[in-house]
Amino acid sequence: MATKNHNLSDYDINSVPDATGMKVGIVVAEWNENITAALLNGAQQTLMKNGVFPEDIEVMTVPGSFELVYGTAQMVKKNFDAVIALGCVIRGDTPHDRYICQGVTYGLTRLNVIQDTPVIYGLITTLDMQQAEERAGGKMGNKGDECAVTAIKMADFRRKIEKD
Ligand code: RBF
């Protein structure tokens, strides 16, 4: 069970459903590429560790986190069991970052309500680059790992619901 200072890479492997045959889309933002590349790598490795075949993972890039909403909205129209959106917004000198975060959070939330493919929220929102590094394979773990586990769990949730 996750707690407040939970390491993003820690999970109980026995709690993860069998992901063999699951198809997962990943949309990743190019902004802060040093961070988002690490998130992507974590997500891919953890998906594969839990049984997802490499050929069943499709990665698409978008320029910035704001474009994650459009990219994800297009990806969910394809035949994926879940779609992960990965981005990193770092606080700047103006409120710009807050508008981006709000837009992405609202947009991805809305997608989860209006259509059937689970969308996984992989947006890191930090005060500085150090905090981002800590969450992209640093001392706080890797948000990409957490998103991969969540994608598998939500795809399994969907399979169970759709079987009824
Ligand atoms: N995109 C990100 O993914 N992370 C950021 O930290 C980020 N900061 C931005 C700061 C400024 C001042 C601007 C203009 C854009 C930023 N973007 C960032 C890009 C944004 O998500 C989007 O791609 C552009 O605003 C589209 O023109």
What is the CATH first-level class name? Alpha Beta
CATH fold naming: Rossmann fold
Rg, Cα atoms, Å: 15 Å
How large is the share of residues in beta strands? 15-25%
Tell me which ligands are bound.
Answer: riboflavin
Main sheet summary: 4 strands, parallel
Features:
43% helix; four-stranded parallel β-sheet; single chain; 5 helices; alpha/beta; binds riboflavin
Would you kindly provide a written description of the structure presented here, covering whatever features stand out?
The protein has helices spanning 33-49, 68-75, 96-114, 129-134, 143-163, and strands spanning 24-29, 57-62, 82-90, 119-126, 136-138, 141-142. The chain has 164 residues and is an alpha/beta fold. It has a single domain (22-163), classed as Rossmann fold (3-Layer(aba) Sandwich), CATH 3.40.50.960. The strands form two sheets. It has a four-stranded parallel sheet with strand order 2-1-3-4, sandwiched between helices. A two-stranded antiparallel sheet has the order 5-6. Helix 1 links the parallel strand 1 (24-29) and strand 2 (57-62). The chain is globular and about 50 Å long. The model has no long low-confidence stretch (mean pLDDT 96). Bound molecules: riboflavin (RBF). The site of riboflavin (RBF) has 16 residues, from strand 3 and helix 3.
